Queue: 3 jobs
Job 1
Amino acid sequence: MNLLKKDFIFQDVNKLDGVGQKLSKYLKKRKIEKIKDIILNLPYSETDRSKINKINGLEIGKINTIKAKVKKLNFPRIRNIPNKINCEDETGKIDIVYFNSRESYLRKIFPINEWVIISGKVNYFRDRYQITNPDYVTNLSNQEYVLQNIPKYNLTKGINEKKYRAISEQVTKKLPLINDWLTKEFIKSNNLLSWNECFEKLHNTDESKDIKSKSFRRLVFDEICANFLTLSKYRKRIKKKKISKSFTQKISKRIISDLPFNLTQSQKIVLKEINSNLKKNERMFRIIQGDVGSGKTIVSLLSIANVIEAKYQCALMGPTEILAQQHYNLALKIFKGTNFKIEFLSGKTDLSKRKIVLDRLKNGDIDLIVGTHALFQKKILFKRLGFVVIDEQHKFGVKQRSELARKGGDNCDVLLMSATPIPRTMMMSLYGDMDISKITEKPLSRKKILTLSKPEKKIDELWIYLEKQINIRNQIFWVCPLIEESKILDFSSAKKKFDLINKKFPNKVGLIHGSLSKDEKDDVLKKFLNNKISILVSTTVIEVGIDFPNANLIIIENANKFGLAQLHQLRGRVGRGSKESTCILLFKEGLSKNSIQRIKILKKSDDGFYIAEEDLKLRGFGDLLGYQQSGIKTFRFADPLLHQDLFKLAERFILNQNEKINEKKYDFLLKLFDKAEIINVNDF
Ligand code: ADP
Ligand code: MG
């Protein structure tokens, strides 16, 4: 019985009374598929229908509720001529107009000479008030149902308020008493509400709009916990016993001594942390966070050398073809003096080659495979996979990460790398309790990027400068802003810019924008990488992680359209080679205080973590660090800044019982928030 009760909320919406095929199709368009989705679809506002207006005092264009007497029903029975009901009160007359409504139905709800309550939007037509297709018509004995504040939901076309309300109320009424997974004491001492109380309140009052209300906080707490639990489930799968890897670092040390530079202190520390993980008999699950250009790749390759020395296979994965290719080339270069067998695999690898690579992986004949998310595929089997490195990890979902790790069986260590600085409160929700290494310093040889700002109207001063750069074969990024996230507008602005620059420097300019296919993009990027073109005009963010050592100038148009952290990421596209590099921020006139502050910060600092913090302060809530762009958007209700206390509470709550988490008990919770993963692998 208990089970049945619980199951109710996970049934398809068409199990509800009054929800037929047509309606459930509409609901599904709004992602309302199961009954629980109705529970989670919170009202965003309410409509006040509580006051009865006299007809002579109606507000045209607004929703009004009236009490009127039915005088006459007119059914013209001619196509396109609506049915019309004449009503009146002591102060005036009104027509209620219906298109496509059945006569018998109208006769039933509008009995002649009776008083009825009518609520709907009022207009004025040919000297008379009228309401077309009113939201509610009811007799006086049921008037209380209409005379209230009625919650407003985001609805798809095709479901009216009354209909949706009936469904939503049906659910509230049928909602079984859920065996709460939080204890009464916990609920009370943390100022929350019980599960049932919470969902009753969220739909009946405007608590849903108050992110500090007890009911909303309960919802948020549950969502955070569901998220943490999912992660800890994956983590359990990942973090298990393994055979420790034994190696002497003979090869990696030789590689280090052959490098044309010295490792930074940070790199050395991280390398040590990784090595000690590799040698332990618990699987590693670690993320390296380091600013763009801090040298994460070399650290991962050195660890890879150790793992190969320990006689395991390694997989290194990048989010895009071109980035993976770059890693592959670097690996070939760095491992030149070794006998490591290295191969590349992506979605574009041709079939015959692919088959050979797959066979060799299975036979253990490849030591390091570098590639894209193609490496996730089921068919790919390893003989002795011992180490998976995933670059720019936020582009991949948790599920995918764990799947790749699973290929390695019990002995696979996992290392993630990311250049996106993440505030502490987001850490747990994104990664669970994984280990974190930070690379905090940049290579000494790195030259500081000169950051300048310039009003857009002085753009003409740039051409001479550009020409000089092109003549000495330097390369330039030209970034156009996103315009209202519209691909078409984006494209036209970038295209215009491209045409303009191309006229000045014929055959030296390439264009990249959101509507290009992956192959077309790769084509342009390759041309730029090989210095076949000098200027790359692009709309969206130039792919994180790609090393274009020869590019030393980046021009960012309409720079106040970008967040601070994003500007910093963009700026990090240059200054990777030995040349002095420059970043020019072009601004429109009349900068806001906030924008001026942002330029100041960028000019002053080169430290991604510092900039991320400043960014948070300047932006306040909402779009944290441009998470949207980086593909990190995990919560529907919780806000990592506004609900910091709940994040901490949930973290403690989960960690406290980590070992003895009763997964069955939380099954309900996980199902309620069906923890969909962000899969963003096709990005760019
Ligand atoms: P990211 O951390 O952004 O992935 P990369 O690993 O791509 O950075 O490194 C950027 C560049 O810096 C590469 O060309 C790499 O060879 C170089 N590099 C890495 N470590 C050092 C170092 N310690 N000193 C000088 N250059 C380094
Ligand atoms: Mg990188």
Job 2
Amino acid sequence: MSALDQQLIPIFEEVLGRNPGEAEFHQAVREVLESLGPVVTKHPQYADSAVIRRLCEPERQIIFRVPWVTDSGKIEVNRGFRVEFNSALGPFKGGLRFHPSVNLGIVKFLGFEQIFKNSLTGLPIGGGKGGSDFDPKGRSDAEVMRFCQSFMTELYRHLGEYTDVPAGDIGVGGREIGFMFGQYKRITNRYESGTLTGKGLSWGGSQVRTEATGYGTVFFVDEMLKAAGDSFDGKRVVVSGSGNVAIYAIEKVHQLGGTVVACSDSGGYVVDPAGIDLALLKEIKNGQRGRISEYAARRGNDVAHVADGSIWDVPCDIALPCATQNELDLEGAGALISNGCRIVAEGANMPTTPNAARLLTEAAVRFAPAKAVNAGGVATSALEMQQNASRDSWTFAHTEERLAEIMRGIHDRCLETADEYGTPGSYVAGANIAGFTRVADAMLALGVI
Ligand code: NDP
């Protein structure tokens, strides 16, 4: 770990003491604090006003029981969460994750990151996150619907277009958003499209929202390449995961002239030297909710499926971790460096462990953090809210151009801020500082609330 500025040590100790056992939350806070030394030195008002201490404490945390009935009549009980972290810039905004690993610490790490990410977009959105330890995998559509209805029966009272606007994340796609929006509409008797984003196109959704996080990730990397006078042309790319973010990252890499040679799920990875066949991947993952091993089986002899191993062993020029937190560790980073990888950009949230990030940076691999790289998803959610508020719907081309423009803006803001604070070229410092100062200035203006 890097050292913390003296002024920030007591703040981090307070976070550790008040939030015991929440390792991922500690990691996310520390990662931001490590960048803020030059900021508190240059602007003592941030330390004097306790703005950083206030930022580390969520405005509100909601935990609730989610009982539901399986197809066979068994009663299951899950736990629901919504952490409304910071609303200085706008209504709380951030996804819902349904995965067995979800607990309060995970939701808090995601909500904390979301504050800075949303701030970086330049759009009027605060930060929040939520979810449940429910596992949609292997459940029928009817079971998923009953779960979503029960979840929303409690959560609806905390939501609203001016209050808190959830979206999808791991395990929450168009199907789940549909069931939750339906229940929200039914309970409130109001068609408030702006209360949830990631909706279907015929009922208030936005073009490009499905693709936005993956496309945005690749637009960001494209800017990194351009800044170095380079392009995607002929680049070999490894993308971990095969969910929403991964699939659309693969699509955009292929459109820009690169080749994605490997992708994965929690059961292993596939290597396809000719380039991932996206139509087949979408059919298996989106159509049949199947496993990546089926991809290798259907693609034939040249494609290997590796059940036990690390996708980071596959040689590449660019690596895009797009699955989950802490999936790229020290060993993975070492393998990427040995194989000549030049860029690592985080499509998933906090996928790189702190040690791995440090090793990559020391080896002069250009490393860009999630809060900048994957901000295209939430930015397009904000565009969805904008369309809902004006009862309008934009074309695919217009929305994609807005997304590309937002990603260019974030990229440039990161580099300019890194320069301004004496860490030229550091996307990590640039993203943390630019995200922090916008939200901190708003908090100062709003008084001690
Ligand atoms: P999906 O549920 O669509 O896909 C997740 C993918 O990651 C799947 O391939 C899944 O494999 C794999 N995965 C999940 N958990 C694990 C694990 N513990 N070990 C190994 N593989 C795992 O989620 P998304 O694509 O939406 O999200 C991926 C990441 O991107 C997350 O970090 C999320 O927070 C982040 N993100 C998503 C946004 C969005 O708009 N969707 C916006 C910003 C960030 P399997 O099916 O086997 O579980």
Job 3
Amino acid sequence: MVSTTLLREAALVDGQWRAAADGRVFDVTDPATGAKIAAVPLMAEADTEAAIAAAAKALRPWRRRTAKDRAAVLTRWAQLMTEHADELAELLTTEQGKPLAEARGEIGYAISFLTFYAAEGQRVRGEIIPATAEDSRIMVLRQPIGVVGCITPWNFPAAMITRKAAPALAAGCTVVLKPAEQTPLSALAIAALGQEAGLPAGVLNVITGDAPAIGRALCASPTVRLISFTGSTEVGKLLSAQCADTVKRLTLELGGNAPFLVFEDADLDAAVTAAVLSKYRHSGQTCVCTNRFLVQASIVEEFTHRFTAAVGKLAVGNGKQPGVDVGPLIDADGLAKVAAHVDDAVHKGARLLVGGAPHALGGTFFQPTVLADVTPQMRVMREETFGPVAAITSFDTEEAAVELANDTRSGLAGYFFTNDLGRAWRVAEALEVGMVGLNTGFLSVEVAPFGGVKESGLGREGSHHGIEDFVETKFVHIGGISSPGAAAGS
Ligand code: NAP
């Protein structure tokens, strides 16, 4: 159970905590124990339309406010989240499963977007462009796009809320946000603090419930001008198709299949430490988690030996217990996918070095696993496993490594370790991804543009780039500006 005053079992629409129009609810459970934590509204089309109407009504007064005024609300919100950080972290671990230390880290990351965009919203500048005629002027305005629909995943229940809402609200947009069904409680708690910080009614609406119905209503609405989605590539494609009819802008942060390349000139200790972090953080359930380890043939044995030893020391358990490194998977479907990937690889000839099965703790716990000698024909190499399974293969040359790394329709994150300066440039430029970790296994910071290429998405979140999608460009051509002499008739 959770001990927080921030637990909400209602959705936030037009400044009010509401039930679904038809009164339906669904349960939220703790993935570590299976116990019910709360029940939240199972909303659908009618509730979504009410939330869109509230966001539309709130838009004009909110966008009229000065950026500085909006920044003050975001800053107060960040302060309140900081004051409640421990409660928010506990709630996050309870509904989501990640170790408390990681949950605390995520709350800090979530707060960083509020702080960053409070400032960045005040830097959305227009332009004056030199005109092509003496009596005209050309001005470019940068204005909020309007009502924004946000749909977020379960793996970052707090950070994905503010990574979208903070730039949207800072730019002067209003928001209808739907969190994932497994983890709505963090979103609702964060929204409650936003309300306390002074967000006016309707500026941020959080609705929970039937994803396809809510998604359809958001996409079909001509009032909603942008869908900002983080989640699977499959659902991202569906939303793209659904948005075609109203020609909406889309920000898509989708799935990855991250390669992690280790060259023979790398610092092997640093590479192993980073490899463990980038693979087993959050039980392998982040979009930027390494999915494929590609190691130069001359060092693959040594790397695999050291990596497997480190993985064997990881502690599995309930994220609330001290010292736990790897928590449960989010649900039974997640566990089944991980088990299927391991079975497929072993069946096709991969060597199982450690783990390989559900953990003795039961439920959705899975053993940290290492597979060697994987091949491109195996699912672990082609699909996002989203679990604590490392797949290792080897390469001979830099060209072969890059070719293997790019042999995927995904292009989110890629990592590589080398101490050769020329190679560092060549490989960073050649990897077909939106984000590169060079001699590091960690990427996510609010000041840098997060996002993917190929089927991993469109647009960027975080940094000054992350506010761009929430802003429209309008050009004003001003005529009839005669010179003073002309006006005097000379
Ligand atoms: P998901 O199944 O696509 O769900 C993401 C969100 O979309 C949830 O809120 C879900 O709602 C909603 N959704 C599902 N079907 C929908 C539909 N037909 N219409 C509208 N919304 C719909 O993904 P997930 O399993 O939660 O998250 C894991 C995926 O997200 C992985 O592929 C991961 O790589 C990706 N991800 C990407 C990033 C990034 O920044 N690129 C970050 C984190 C995660 P319900 O939960 O209610 O079904």
